Amino acid sequence: MNEKKTARIYDIGTGRLAQPRQAANDDTPAKTGGGGGFEQEEQHVKGNPVIRFFRHLAFLVLMWLRGPIRFFLGVVGVPAMLAIPLVGLGLESPQKTEIVLGLVALSFGAFVLRWLYDSLLIWLSPEPVFFNS
């Protein structure tokens, strides 16, 4: 009668009941003692040392390049964002709309690329990672 009540969370990719995990990027479910073959599928990914090695290597290289990539995208995105009100309020040109929309797209595109790059690093990380900048 004293069973823990937990939410029924389903895996989006398989449609089966999801297994508890240590972290969002963890490839192995927590030790819960059941799952109808789900653990065997996941065990193959964790057990392959070649895949783990190349995943860790890719993570380290991308983490090493994170600083310069974020710096470059910041150098592109921040001035474009700051130029939007300057061009919108100060420029008198027939191409004003195209220029403002181009600046918005450039600034937002740089933001999205920074976010996607960090998401890729979080997904590849062999251990849970927290970024503070």
* Count of β-strands: 0
Which blocks of ≥5 consecutive residues have pLDDT under 50?
A: 34-45
Q: Kindly, what is the distance between the CA atoms of the first and last residues, rounded to a whole number of angstroms?
A: 47 Å
3D shape: elongated
Strand content is under 5%
Q: What oligomeric state is this?
A: single chain
Order of helices and strands: HHH
| Global mean pLDDT | 79
Radius of gyration: 22 Å
Transmembrane segments: 71-91, 98-117
Keywords: Membrane, Transmembrane, Transmembrane helix
Region (Disordered): 19-41
Task: Describe this protein's structure.
The protein is mainly α and 133 residues long. It has 2 domains: 7-47, no CATH class; 52-124. It has 3 helices and no strands. The protein has helices at 38-47, 49-90, 96-124.
List the helices and strands and how they pair.
Elements: H1 38-47, H2 49-90, H3 96-124
